[in-house]
Amino acid sequence: MLQILTGQHLGRFEITGFLGRGAFAQVLEAVDENGTKVALKVGDESGGGCTLRRFREITAERRASGVSPDETPAEAMFLDPVDGARAEVLDATEVDEMLWREAKLLEQAGGKGLPALLAVEREQGRPILVMEAIEGTTLRQRIRSLEGVKMAWIVELTYILERIHALGWPCHGDVKPENVIIGEDGRVTLLDPVPLMRRADMVVTTPWYNPFLRRDAKADVHGIGIMLYELLAGALPFEQVPFRYAGCAQSAADADDQDLMLSLYLSFPKPRELNSRSPAEFDRIIYRALADENYGLSDLRLDLEDFLLK
After folding, report:
1. Which of 145, 210, 132, 151 is nearest to 175 (CA)?
2. pTM of the full predicted structure?
3. How many CA atoms lie within 13 A of 48 on its CB side?
4. Which terminus, N or C, of the chain has the lesser number of Cβ atoms within 10 Å?
5. Residue 2 lies in a domain
6. How far, in Å, CA of 174 to CA of 208, rounded?
7. Residue 299 domain flag
8. pLDDT, tens digit (0-9, with 9 covering 90-100), for 110-156
9. Any idea what the CATH number is for the domain that residue 65 is in?
């Protein structure tokens, strides 16, 4: 992990604080020579959520010396046709490729639902994304602090995802509470879009929110469905990532074992079984989001809007 300290300079920027860590990069608060506050996304020398076990301290707040409880880093999942999915580490070149591709998407989005990209700087030949500084809290922080989450924010999230798809990107790929920030003005911003890499056998995602390791729009539907379940039930709908055979040839693994794992995935308790105050309509919405292949992002958005209008 890169050690970047408060007061250090990266090019024309002075580091003023630490905002968060992903599996492949750090996001730092900084100011430019005019005193304008920005967020800098700096790639690590290698990355992958599986590498974070090297940190020894679990901290109560976000800081560079440890991992806080509100951070669930993504993984680089390699899809082996025989052994199934496994987490691996990306090197600096692959991390930089992700940052360049993310910069392209942020530029296309123009600050609509994603952080506005102000510039891409280079430091020792490596890209640094210069983005707007967003004052607010993540959904994960709001969940842990019991501050409450408005369903209208989730609806806005579906609109943001639809705009991403309209730009020609198949999915955001890593929809989870850590990547949704609610600004002090109530604006919803979706962080850390994961661009598709050139390798067809690799998916960068957080498996807990993309359990089938999808690389298409259904990955985002699964992510929102799991987030809704977590918000209503206070837990994930499964105890472990339910489909370790993602990308695995049908003949390479025992079909009965795959069928059993799929049936366990689909047998999750309904939200109302865990929270009697959960609206009954969400039992259907969440089930369709997780289990119905034909239930897309627009279907999910319309169902959420219908619920809010009732």
Report:
1. 210
2. 0.88
3. 16
4. C
5. no
6. 10
7. yes
8. 999 999 999 999 988 899 999 999 999 999 988 888 788 899 999 99
9. 1.10.510.10
